[in-house]
Amino acid sequence: MTATHLRVKFVDFWKGFEPDNNIFVEALRKNFEVDVLGDDAGEVPQLLIYSAFGMEHIHYDCMKVYYSGENDVPDFNQCDYAISSHFLQLGDRHMRLPQYLLYKEFDMLDAVVSTSTNGVADRPFCSVVVSNSVYADPQRVAIIDAIERYKPLAYGGAFRNNVGGRVPDKMEFIKRYKFNIALENSCVDGYTTEKIVEPMAAHTIPIYWGNGKVGKEFNPEAFINAADYNDYDGVVREIERIDNDNEAYLKMLCAPKIVPTARVDWFAQLSDFFAHIVGSGRRYVQPYGILGHMQYMQRRKELLYSNTLLRKCAGAWIKLKGGK
To answer: Which terminus of the chain, N or C, has less C-beta within 10 A?
Structure first.
């Protein structure tokens, strides 16, 4: 396609996100000459790409693409198009881009298979690096507790830390252990993060829980999936079996990591997705009918969100009414 100037802006992304240096800009630049607008730019973007960490996007009247690598489902009443981890079909409005693809460790997985196995079965038992123990499914802690009843765990995050403080280098820490507990915040089909990729890249075996369809993309013979067992005791028995059988351990450790059918050119798909939506110019979100009323209410909510005092008052009221 002929190169065309495209004004793009990013809002509501996480702290540390680089608007000029990310996979979305790279994909757009395959087909367009991209001008990334800064926060103080007076120009209206032709394409707004926003995420889940704010509400600034509601102030823009332009084509909007929502991105989330989290477990939330895109609100297509707010965005024209969306990119997420979910297996969604809504015409041309959605593209699936699993979060794990954005981590450099994913590109290391093929090399891991040929890594030396000398001494790896003699490493200490298992590591855990967890910081979020509040906004997560209680099953995470239940699985951790069940495994710890078998053998003590090395906690390198803020949660139950017992190694003298949070580890500065997660990969260096987990590669010192035979296993790593790799649990997502919730069990949602399609939602696979760095949790399973990092231990694989560090040449250790993940004990995974989360995406119910994780076996569509990651080889089930390369990790222990807690969801495959009827109860926590069944998970622990499998861990114990592999922990005490070096041949079984090395076989799982050295198994190919990625399912062959999952090897697709995600970058090309992302470039094509953007090329299509920009080329069509079609917007789906319009300020009419009930949809217009919902947008009006969303702007009212933003007033509360952006005002610290009002937000605290609302929080106190929710607690008073018995909420969280």
So the answer is: C
Q: Which pLDDT score is estimated for 3?
A: 52
Report pTM: 0.88
Spans of the chain below 50 pLDDT: 1-2
- Would you say 177 and 127 are in contact if contact means Cβ atoms under 8 Å apart? yes
SS (H, E, C) 186-255: CCCCCCCCHHHHHHHHCCCEEEEECCCCHHHCECHHHCEEHHHCCCHHHHHHHHHHHHCCHHHHHHHHCC
What is the per-residue pLDDT across 38-80, written as a single tens digit (0 to 9) for each? 988 778 899 999 999 988 998 899 999 999 999 999 999 999 9
Per-residue pLDDT tens digits for 237-273: 999 999 999 999 999 999 999 999 988 999 999 999 9
> CATH assignment of 114-255, given 3.40.50.150, 3.40.50.11660, 1.10.3720.10, 3.90.460.10?
3.40.50.11660
CB–CB of 192/99 below 8 Å? yes
Cβ atoms within 10 Å of 140's Cβ, excluding its own: 23
- 150 burial (CB, 10 Å; 0-12 / 13-18 / 19+) is middle
Positions of CATH 3.40.50.11650 in the chain: 5-98+266-320
Residue 269 main-chain phi, psi, to 5 deg = -65, -40
Which residue intervals of the chain bear CATH 3.40.50.11660?
114-255
